[in-house]
């Protein structure tokens, strides 16, 4: 009886392992986000909700490190924003994802582009920021 139970458990385990291989998978291309602190936040939180990603980015922008910096422009540039038009700093990046079906096909509706736009204004004592995360279908 015990051998039979062990055999059944072994078979069930193998079926579970082989069954997982037949499930859809997600392929993500994060090459467009860069390697800055903001890019790392996006990478770590990619599977989370848009609000979660926005919250983590805002936590970084409003962190003590930035708030107490003597040169806020430099501090914002160090985390990945570009400050070409003072007193505004911006960040723009895109990432792509697609859901690959178990048979290897990808439906057009399962190809997505994730766009991240950040604007920070350091003209006053307190930095003001706007973070936008937009997910839309990839038309290509």
Question: What would you note in describing this structure?
Answer:
The protein has one domain (25-137). It has helices at residues 2-21, 37-44, 50-61, 64-67, 72-78, and strands spanning 25-29, 82-85, 88-100, 111-121, 128-137. It is α+β, with helices and mostly antiparallel strands and 140 residues long. 36% of the residues lie in helices and 31% in strands. Strands 1, 2, 3, 4 and 5 form a five-stranded antiparallel sheet that branches.
Count of the separate structural domains: 1
Rg result: 22 Å
| Structural class by secondary-structure content | alpha+beta
Q: What summary fits the major beta sheet? A: 5 strands, antiparallel
Beta content comes to 25-35%
Unreliably modeled segments: 1-9
């Amino acid at each position: 009886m015990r051998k039979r139970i062990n055999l059944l458990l072994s078979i069930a385990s193998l079926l579970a392992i082989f069954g997982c291989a037949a499930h859809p998978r997600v392929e993500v291309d994060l090459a467009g986000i860069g390697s800055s602190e903001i890019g790392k936040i996006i990478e770590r939180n990619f599977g989370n909700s848009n609000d979660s990603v926005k919250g983590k980015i805002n936590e970084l922008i409003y962190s003590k490190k930035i708030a107490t910096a003597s040169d806020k422009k430099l501090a914002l540039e160090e985390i990945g924003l570009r400050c070409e038009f003072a007193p505004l700093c911006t960040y723009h990046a895109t990432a792509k994802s697609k859901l690959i079906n178990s048979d290897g096909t990808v439906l057009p509706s399962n190809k997505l582009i994730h766009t991240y736009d950040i604007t920070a204004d350091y003209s006053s004592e307190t930095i003001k920021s706007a973070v936008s995360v937009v997910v839309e279908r990839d038309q290509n």
